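check this one:
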Amino acid sequence: MTELNGKRVLVVDDDIAFGKSLVEALREAGAVAFGPALTTFHADCLLGRRRVDLALLDTRLYGKGSDEFAMELRARAIPVMFMSEPETSRPAGVLAQLPLLSKPLDAATVLAEVDSYLSQTRGSEALRLVHTEPSPRTENQQSPLHRLARCVAVSLERNAAL
């Protein structure tokens, strides 16, 4: 039995053909694979409140870096493995310590690397990296529920001052 059996893996890559083949290979190996998500927004929607054992994340999505999304995943204690083109530079800072797979990749290599990484991170309490707080949201980016709670709090403060 492989370590991937029943593991939940999110695949985020803007190359849809590669992403689909990767998801298919993961599923054949027994993993529950989500995706491929083409953007970080799409990935966040797929993720929702699901528990995920690993995120396979392309370092560049449509020409933009995915470092911020990787930090958000790490803040949620989700292990991340990067995938990148050979000419793309390695993520900087605390993300530099995360595994990086160089494309082109074949399914067997990815499965072996994912299996190895998951066996290393299993039960690890050290998934969170230093300074992984997600960037604070502006008022326009906050959820409707958060804005409602803030309005109620402001109203209560005003009424208490009367």
Notes: Residues 125-135 have pLDDT under 50 and may be disordered.
